[in-house]
Amino acid sequence: MANKRCLIAAAGSGKTTYLVNEIWEHFQNAPVIFVTFTTTNQLTICEKIRKRFGFIPTRIKIMGWYQFLFRYFILPYKADVLQELNTIHVSLTFDSDYSRTYQTKSGSTFSKYKHNDIKGKFFTSGWRIHKDLVAEFAFLCTRGNEDSIVRRLYESADILCFDESQDFSGSDHEIIKLITRLYPGSVLFATDPRQHIYSTTKFGGKKYEGKIDLYLSEKVNTRTKKLFKIRIEKML
């Protein structure tokens, strides 16, 4: 059974250092994908790895959440969602003021796109995906491609580390469920629910927002299907 754990720890208690040390002490030369949300934390991870190893080993890939979704979910499988994307380059747009609806002068609210209009929902006119919808589109890309995605991930790394996991929201959780259930390697999460300041999307549900540990306990490692052990280690 692969090593799958979730660490709950307060800010400044050493969550990121813990993950880096786990890589060094328990996994040695295994290839790693280290995913986090903010650019600041990506730089922090780089600094801690340099301090631990003296350099950043080529076997350790550090990337942001959106970059992770584009590389392993969206770019290889986008045409399975929308066939015309087979020959079109797609990218990301950080339009934080994006809304899925518009309001008329009379105050009525309408959707900006029709029910099955994938292009209208997810993309700008220049084929850029709205940042708040990246994970939702990535999840569409998983349909029928689950085994292929997991195989690509495992070919890239034996270990997946997710720092700042409290920032996951909405369809992020469905991506996490797929990974933790099907990915045969080790998966490590680090989170602090009280540090839930940022979010990968503003369209996520409220129940599990900032609470990746609760989502893992209730939706992934259920009472009826103990697919693996999630150790919740509290450093509070």
Any overview of this molecule?
This protein has 236 residues and is an alpha/beta fold. The chain is built from 8 helices and 10 strands. The chain has helices spanning 15-27, 39-53, 65-81, 118-122, 134-142, 146-156, 172-182, 212-220, and strands at residues 4-9, 32-36, 60-64, 91-93, 101-103, 109-111, 128-130, 159-162, 186-191, 231-235. The strands form 3 sheets. A 6-stranded parallel β-sheet has the order 3-2-8-9-1-10. A two-stranded parallel sheet has the order 4-7. The mean pLDDT is 86.
Overview features:
single chain; 236 residues; alpha/beta; 6-stranded parallel beta sheet; 8 helices; 10 strands; 38% helix; globular
Brief rundown of the structure:
By secondary structure, this protein is an alpha/beta fold. The protein is built from eight helices and ten strands. It has helices at residues 15-27, 39-53, 65-81, 118-122, 134-142, 146-156, 172-182, 212-220; strands at 4-9, 32-36, 60-64, 91-93, 101-103, 109-111, 128-130, 159-162, 186-191, 231-235.
Task: Please render the helix and strand layout as text.
Layout: E1 4-9, H1 15-27, E2 32-36, H2 39-53, E3 60-64, H3 65-81, E4 91-93, E5 101-103, E6 109-111, H4 118-122, E7 128-130, H5 134-142, H6 146-156, E8 159-162, H7 172-182, E9 186-191, H8 212-220, E10 231-235
Parallel strand pairs: 1-9, 1-10, 2-3, 2-8, 4-7, 8-9
Antiparallel strand pairs: 5-6
